[in-house]
Structure formats: structure tokens, C-alpha cells
Amino acid sequence: MLEIGTQTHPRPHQAALYILLYRNQVLIEADNQFLIPFTHFQPNANMSAVYCGQWHGQDIFVCRFEAIPKGFTETGLRELLFLQDQDHYLLLSRAHQLATWDRDHQFCGRCGTPMEGKHAKEHAKMCSSCNLRHYPRISPCIIVSIRKGEQILLARGPQAPKGRYSNLAGFVEAGETLEQAVAREVREEVGIEITNIRYVSSQPWSFPHQLMTGFFADYLSGDITPAPGEIEEAAWWPIDALPSIPNAATISGQIILQHVEHIKQSQSRST
Ligand SMILES: [Zn+2]
């Protein structure tokens, strides 16, 4: 498990493991191995190596490359994440989000001064001119599975493959609670009202820095009216005849399966 402690961040060293990124790709060795020992890769002094924390007692660093170094091949972050257990998933997500923060905060957003120093104990860059601190950005999002009797709502956005259906999801707006965001997204995307909105679980989704928060909700009123340009199709699907849904490594797939199980249990209790 990853320890996100408050110890002083170490410099790269020989006993650490390294995660190497090239654009949105992860550099791997044989068998999709993405944790690279020092014997296979040594960061040079010009390279920004961001400390990710201790993972099973070992220090982990992430480094970003402009070209693929010899001896490594690249693989898509998304594809690699789907192959991981929860422990490796969270480590890889964190490494990617910290590397993105490091790349995207080269200058102070308030006064434009180049950001040079990092805080010794936390992931913060401090502006030497105006003292503003820049932390890794985390963008809260909601994702919701909606029940109507023995059916759940599944929708397909314009980007989704044909025949693949998923939950409704969206970013939380400034000043909004998570529950308000759930109700608003559902109203905007399919034109229905929901009730009994309750939190289920969460998952970091590093494309590039979302924190997905998963909810269940119950249908209240209205007819499904897909928002043009946002939703291609949306419908109520019987839980025993679902279409193709997202991979169970994603929170989307997980909350669909959990909701189906929950509905089946409530049916068996009522009979
Ligand atoms: Zn500044």
C-alpha cells in the first residue's frame, strides 16, 4: 500500500523504484513491468524526479521524458491501469497526477515567476516572489447509477464505442456540493429528476486529474430526454439484460455491478 506521509522527500537514490512517463504513455520493461529499479535507469541531474511516497517500504519516484530512452517500450496509461490490482492502480494514478502537476506548474499562476523550489515535505511549489503555493490539482467529478424499479439507466456519449453503455458523469462546479452536482448532471444530460442520492465509493481517474465519486440514486420524475451533443442514447435497462458496460476496473463498471447486486438483494428480501 502507498504511504502518503509527511516525511521529508528524499532525493532519487539506488534503492528506489522509478516510474517513467512519456507523454500519456508509461515506459515498461518485459511483462508490463512499470516499476523500474535503479540498476536499469538512473535519473540525471537535469531531470525532474518527483517523489510519490513509500510503497511497501520502497521510495517511488516518477520521471517524465521527451523521448523514449533505450531499452524501454511504451504502453497507454489507460490500458496499463486496467491491468492493475487496486494497489498498483492507485500508485500509477498518483505518479501520473504528480508528474502532470510538475509539468503544468512551471510558472506561478498569479505573478508569472518561474517555479523553482519544491516544498521539502509536501507536494507544493512555492512562488519565491509572491509566496503563492501551487498544489497538484484534483478535480472532483460525480458518477451515478440510477434505479427505476428493476431497471437502471445507462447512456452512451458521442465518444463511446457503439453498443457500450455507461453511467452519467460530470465535473463538480465551483461552489456546488457533490449531491447537487449529481442532480444537476442528471437533469442536464437526460432531463429527469432523481431522489435518494447516496455516496458509494470513489476512484482517482488520472485523465488528467479527476477524483471520481460514485453514487446511487432513485428515479423520481420526468421522461428521458438526451441532451444533444452530450448523450447519443439513454434508456432504462432491465438488470437481468444489461448491454456491454465498462470494465470492472473502473468505478463506472464497479457501481453498475454493485447496484445490480443491491437491487437483486432488495428483490429477494421483498419476496
Ligand atoms: Zn507568484
Describe the structure concisely.
The chain is an alpha+beta fold and 271 residues long. The protein has four helices and 15 strands.
Descriptive notes:
By secondary structure, the chain is an alpha+beta fold. It folds into two domains: 2-104, Nucleoside Triphosphate Pyrophosphohydrolase (Alpha-Beta Complex); 139-270, Nucleoside Triphosphate Pyrophosphohydrolase (Alpha-Beta Complex). The chain has helices spanning 77-82, 86-104, 178-190, 251-270; strands at 2-3, 17-22, 25-28, 36-37, 49-55, 58-65, 73-76, 125-126, 133-134, 139-148, 151-156, 168-171, 193-205, 210-221, 233-238. The structure holds zinc ion.
**What is the number of beta strands?**
15
Examine the secondary-structure arrangement and name the CATH architecture of the largest domain.
Answer: Alpha-Beta Complex
The CATH homologous superfamily of the largest domain is named: Nucleoside Triphosphate Pyrophosphohydrolase
CATH class of the largest domain: Alpha Beta
Helix content: 10-25%
Can you give the mean pLDDT?
A: 92
CATH topology of the largest domain: Nucleoside Triphosphate Pyrophosphohydrolase
Strand coverage percent: 25-35%
Radius of gyration over all CA atoms, rounded: 22 Å
Bound molecules: zinc ion
Helices, by number, come to 4
Q: Largest sheet at a glance?
A: 7 strands, mixed
Structural class: alpha+beta
Q: In one word, what is the shape?
A: elongated
Poorly predicted spans? none
| Count of spatially separate domains | 2
**N to C succession of SSEs:** EEEEEEEHHEEEEEHEEEH
